[in-house]
Design goal:
The chain is an alpha+beta fold and 544 residues long. The chain contains 16 helices and 18 strands. A 6-stranded antiparallel beta sheet has the order 12-11-16-15-14-13. A 5-stranded antiparallel beta sheet has the order 2-1-5-4-3. Strand 17 and strand 18 form a beta hairpin. It is elongated and about 190 Å long.
């Protein structure tokens, strides 16, 4: 499209500037750029485009700027202090047509109205007032999708030469380069952090080739698991497990590696015993993961290893001690029950306890405290059901010890068994109740024996009382005989016998009647005066 004169109104001094550009002019600086072919190619090698001399038209002879910048690809204009446009080359015309408007253009702000109240405009104003050249860039909406480099050059005339260069491709390249530098820096930082994590991790980390199992990378921590020369950092890099792991094949470890490689499925084991080292059997927790593209055979295998030998041996010792304790509890003739806190779930019940209740351990085991009364058929000695919250096991779970609580067990055959129960809380290292234990033993036979002894004691007491009474009676009869032989006076004999009867019965007095024939009865009344005292001293105790 030919640019006709008058298409873009300019300052009065530049009405015929467009006549020099009959060919289309591209937006300067766009990539790929179309070079503007001059009408008369010069015979001599051309100077740099910014300083390339051209043959000016007569109308432009008065302007050295036109000679220097008329055919430059950069947009160049000269601005008066009042911002009127004194000169503008063809490239600047195209730039203004892209960025601004074409009608009623006298000042720069007429051509670029969107710039007038912007930081870019402030930069141009500062450049107009400063003797120093300035350079800045314009992009975004004001650059219409392109990046423009604006260079200012103060002139001796007080005017300002402004040069616009399309640096979009350069800016994009700079941004790409900056993004690349940032990405490389970020990647380097991530690699440094990853290296720090790998080296500082308390687990062994090994990266090996999936096809040959050759070690590519290994952190220092993994070398601590090994023996001899392999303990040095990076000693296993470039080697295979057959070299630094004794019995790698015999222990079945190599088969696990092959299976992970062939199936692509990771392998993990929480406790792996390894007997290949001189220090004896060691235990490891390790994971082997395949690495590679999805759907393709793995390229690498990642091995993560942690030695747990000390933990396993400590656990084995605890388990041995616990087994020994349970063996002792199983041998005790008393019942022992352990429940976990806070629910009261049965953790342990020895054989003696289950035998006392007449059921199996599974039948007696409970998940909650409230189940014990029903499963064990627990009652008070009065025959009432034992409240679950008052059971010794429930009180022990609350941290309250108990001792010798009498509980009655209902047996499957309907019989009852009485036990004495004592409970204690079992606390953890922090002092919290972790478990509760109750011990109980059968006192049914003891209670029956005590009852029998009580009955026999009562019978013995009655027999003793009966014997004492018989002795008193014998002594009384002896005293009566003595009284009858001590005197021949019937009345005195009767009085003595009455007194003996009073003393024998513990009464304050007694009467004696002798029945005679033909209604001739004789009666004698006497008070107890202690006639039997001499006899008590020689004949034993009397009944009270």
């Amino acid at each position: 499209e030919r640019i006709a004169p008058g298409d873009l109104p300019l300052a009065p001094s530049l009405p015929n500037l467009c006549d020099r550009f009959p060919a289309p002019v591209s937006v300067p600086g766009d990539a790929p750029a179309r070079a503007t072919k001059p009408r008369h190619p010069p015979k001599q090698p051309r100077a740099p485009e910014a300083d390339r001399p051209v043959t000016p038209t007569p109308e432009a002879c008065r302007s050295d700027d036109h000679a220097r910048f008329g055919e430059a690809r950069d947009g160049v204009c000269v601005l008066a202090p009042d911002w009127r446009i004194r000169y503008m080359n063809a490239s600047m015309l195209e730039i203004l047509r892209l960025l601004g408007r074409e009608e009623k253009v006298e000042t720069l702000w007429d051509a670029l109205p969107a710039w007038e109240h912007t930081p870019e405009a402030d930069g141009l104003r500062e450049a107009m007032a400063s003797p120093e050249p300035r350079t800045f860039r314009v992009d975004g909406d004001r650059g219409r999708g392109r990046v423009w480099e604006v260079s200012t050059e103060p002139l001796a005339s007080g005017e300002l030469r402004v040069r616009l260069r399309n640096v979009t491709a350069q800016a994009h390249a700079e941004r790409a380069e900056s993004a690349s530098r940032d990405a490389h820096r970020s990647l380097a930082e991530r690699e440094a952090r990853l290296d720090a994590v790998v080296e500082g991790a308390p687990v062994g980390i090994v990266l090996m080739d999936a096809a040959t199992f050759t070690v590519r990378e290994a952190n220092d921590f993994y070398h601590r698991f090994l023996e001899g020369e392999w303990r040095k950092p990076d000693a296993i890099v470039g080697h295979t497990p057959w070299e630094f792991l004794p019995t790698f094949e015999e222990s079945g470890t190599a088969d696990i590696f092959r299976e992970v490689r062939d199936t692509g499925a990771p392998f993990e084991i929480a406790e792996f015993p390894f007997a290949g080292f001189e220090r004896g059997t060691t235990y490891f927790r390790w994971t082997l993961k395949p690495l590679g593209d999805p759907g393709a055979p793995p390229r690498y295998l990642l091995l993560l290893v942690a030695e747990i030998t000390e933990q396993v041996r400590a656990r084995q010792e605890v388990e041995a001690e616990r087994k020994a304790l349970f063996d002792v509890l199983d041998a005790l003739p008393v019942g022992v029950l352990v429940a976990g806190a806070p629910s009261g779930r049965t953790v342990y019940l020895n054989a003696a306890g289950a035998a006392m209740a007449g059921r199996t351990a599974d039948e007696l085991s409970a998940d909650e405290v409230r189940e014990y009364t029903r499963r064990w058929r627990l009652m008070r000695p009065t025959g009432e059901p034992f409240p679950p919250d008052e059971l010794p096991i429930a009180r022990a779970l609350r941290g309250e010890p108990t001792r010798d609580v009498e509980v009655v067990l209902g047996l499957p055959d309907g019989a009852e068994r009485t036990v004495l129960v004592s409970g204690v809380p079992l606390r953890d290292a922090a002092g919290a109740v972790a478990r509760a234990m109750v011990a109980f033993y059968d006192i049914t036979e003891r209670l029956a024996l005590e009852h029998a002894l009580l009955e026999r004691s009562r019978e013995a007491e009655w027999a003793a009382a009966e014997a004492a009474m018989r002795a008193d009676e014998s002594r009384a009869l002896l005293a009566a005989a003595e009284a009858m032989t001590a005197t021949l006076d019937p009345q005195e004999v009767m009085e003595r016998i009455a007194r003996i009867a009073a003393e024998l019965t513990g009464a304050d007095g007694a009467g004696l009647t002798v029945v005679g024939g033909e209604g001739r009865d004789r009666t004698s009344v006497a008070a107890a005066t202690g006639l039997l005292e001499p006899l008590r001293g020689t004949g034993g105790a009397s009944r009270g």
